[in-house]
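Task: encode each sequence below as structure tokens.

Item 1
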Amino acid sequence: MLSALANPHRLRILATLKAEGRSYVSQLARQVGISRPLLHLHLQKLEEAGLVTSQLELSPDGKALNFFAVADFAVHLTPDLLVQAAATLSAKTE
């Protein structure tokens, strides 16, 4: 979850979804100002981390739209959690 939140694009996506309620991919890409393929990558990471949810719906004209919304989540940081997160970081090479 911390890794997903560490990316500025993902923070903007979460902030936009929180402000707008929910949005489908094309609309969200325009709102955030990134390409749809890049948005898909970030949404996948956010969904894997449990930070967003998605729901596939049909529009009135029959198009399939994947709507995303912010999931109800809370992050409680503790020293132990930070130690666990640090253990997942790659080693620094010099």
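Item 2
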Amino acid sequence: MATTTSNLKLIELTPNMEQAYWDFHNALYPPNTPPRLHELRSSQTHSFTHAVDLLKQSRAKSNPQLGLVPHSVYWLINFDDQILGSIDFRHELSPQLAEFGGHIGYNVHPAHRRKGYATYMLKQTLPVAKTHGLTRLLITCDSNNPASIGVIKNCGGILQETATISDRPVPIMRWWIEL
């Protein structure tokens, strides 16, 4: 299915998007799942505004003890400011991310999958990665995830290897995209 991008924007999260964030989170995860937004989970005040501020600060900071590297998270929204997806661009790789996770992670709202949104987000993020001095990006996915495999291939991904990792139930695939 073709993606209509004229009514889409890839933006950074703002404090006024709290309800949209929770709607997106609740569509992706079972009830009572802790927030995926690390900054919200680790925030002592658990204030959404504080978490958004911490997320902005994470572009320049890392936390090796938590396996965190500097990263930017962008949110795909439509004209109604509904979050359709998110993409996390990690500016560098830790040893753990070099094994599994890579430079990029993305999610698409279950009601909006198979519309090309993940491909759109990844294509929009490639020039951003280039501005950070990267010449290629590592992206990993489970070998039984045809949707992610398709997204990565659509964006020029070249398969490096399929590998078994001890704590993963299925082999993972490591792909590189040249910028």
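Check on item 2: The helical segments are 18-28, 38-42, 48-57, 95-99, 117-131, 146-154. Residues 117-131 form the longest helix (15 residues).
End of task.
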